[in-house]
Every structure is written in structure tokens, then in C-alpha cells.
Amino acid sequence: MAATFPLTNFGGAAARKATLATTEGAFVRWFLIGITVLFLDVFLFMPFAVVFSSALAKGVSVYFSALSEPDALAAIRLTLIAAGIAVPVNLVFGVSAAWAIGKFDFFGKNFLISLIDLPFSVSPVVSGLIYVLIFGLQGLLGPWLAAHDIKLIFAVPGIVLATVLIPLIQAQGNEEEEAALTLGASGWQTFFRVTLPNIKWGLLYGVILCNARAMGEFGAVSVVSGHIRGRTNTMPLHIEILYNEYQFAPAFAVASLLALLALVTPFVKSAAEWKAGQQVAELEVGRVGKPV
């Protein structure tokens, strides 16, 4: 009679060995989790707690009076104006650049990608200094701008210019666009009815990050603004002035608005990122399921 061997036991033993080889012990897992929680407590949750506790340290009335003060309202208004202009401009340019890079092959494509990535590797202060050297009164174009009474530096246009950021979107493939063009759709029809619905969540992701960065920009804006109270100070610059004047409660009151933006942004960003990933997965499943 032939002997039988418990093959399933061998398989189970191998699986257990593989699991043990790729899984850390309970002590290591809890140690790493503890380090992560401690890091978040010290560098994230505690600073947020300090901001809001300091903002409300002298009472709710002082908090709201600091936000309703004329210079604070002017700083909030200028921040919203700068972000309201910079985000749509970046949106149009970002979509155009992503369209060109993701849909076409052309000479100098890698060079264009490098130019788009350049602002991420240059300090904002350096960017602001470059704007001053080009558009300032003693800059390259300064005399011509002054002769035509055009003010960029130490004015709202310069602040908007300093908040520029390029949000890019990932290419989603060309198959659906090519099908639409084959069926007689125009370029604009293809963009609005095919491409835009496919990239809307990725686009929202870029807009959220661009808006958060524009409203919190300090370095470049600090160089080009001139720190004119009530005229060219954005919220971060207004906070700096109040803090340097030892007006801590008003400074933290204005800072709490940016802190609220920082709290809301990750949740909205995560939702948009999840929806974008879900949409890409659905598109991939649809492409795989298509008959060849």
C-alpha cells in the first residue's frame, strides 16, 4: 500500500515561515508606532495646540477684534486676492503644460519638464529677489515700467507674481481622446467631454495644494511686498509684524486662520487623492475589459 504524506502541512509550515520572515515582532511594531505618535505630538499636534491656545489666551473678544482690525482685514483681503488670481492662472498653465507633456512627443520635452520643476528647487526668497532685479525700479525692466506708470514690485501684481506655483496632472492615456477624434469630435469637445472628466479629481488635488501654498507663501512675497501695512502685507507678513511687535495674541489669532486652512487641506486633499486613484483604477479596469 502506497504511503501518503500530509502535503498541506508542509505548505502551511512554509507559509508560516514566510510570514515570520516578513513580519516584525510585536515589540518592534509598537516601538515604531510609538515613535511616530511621539513625533506627530511634538511637531504637529503641540504646535497646533499652542497656536489656538495663544490665540484665545486673552479671550474671545480679543480674538475677534484682532481679526476685525483694519490692517488684519486688509491682509486677509490681499491674501484672498492673490490666491484668487494665482490659482486660476496656475490652473490654466498647469493643465496646458500637462496636456502638452502627457499627450505629445516633441523636441525639447525633457527640457520643458526641467523648467517646470525648477521652481521647486529654488528658494522662494531667491525667486523674490529675481523679481526685484527684473521688475524693480533699478532692475532690468524697471525704467520702462516706471515710464509707463506700471507698478509690479511693492504692489499687488508683484505679490500675485510671487505666489505662482505650477500644479501638474498625470497623463491618463490617449485611447479615449483618439476614439473621440476618430468619431468626429473637435479638439475642444474632446478636452471638455473626455479629458477633463478623467482628470477632474487629480486637478482638484493640484488646486488644493496650490491654494494652500499661495495663501501661506512668505519668502518671495516678503521680498517684493515692501511690508506696507494695510496695502501690501499678506497674512503671513502681517503675522510676522505683529509677532515682532510683541502683540502675541493678535499674531496667533491671524495665524489660527492659516492653521485652520492647514487642518482642512489634508482631509480635502486625501479625499481628492482617493477619488482620483479610484477613477484611475476604474479606467484601467475598463481598458483591460475591452475586447481586443
Give a short overview.
The protein is mostly helical. The chain contains 13 helices and no strands.
Quote the average pLDDT: 78
Q: End-to-end distance, in Å? A: 52 Å
**Overall strand count:** 0
Helix % is over 70%
Show unreliable segments: 1-5, 166-172
What gross morphology would you assign?
globular
> Which class of secondary structure composition applies to the elements?
mainly alpha
Radius of gyration computed on alpha carbons: 27 Å
How many individual helices? 13
* Strand-residue proportion: under 5%
> Topology as H/E string?
HHHHHHHHHHHHH
Largest sheet: none
Describe the structure.
77% of the residues lie in helices and 0% in strands. It is globular. The protein has helices spanning 7-22, 26-55, 60-68, 70-103, 109-121, 124-135, 142-147, 156-162, 175-182, 187-216, 219-225, 235-244, 248-289. The chain is mainly α and 292 residues long. The two termini are 52 Å apart. The chain is built from 13 helices and no strands.
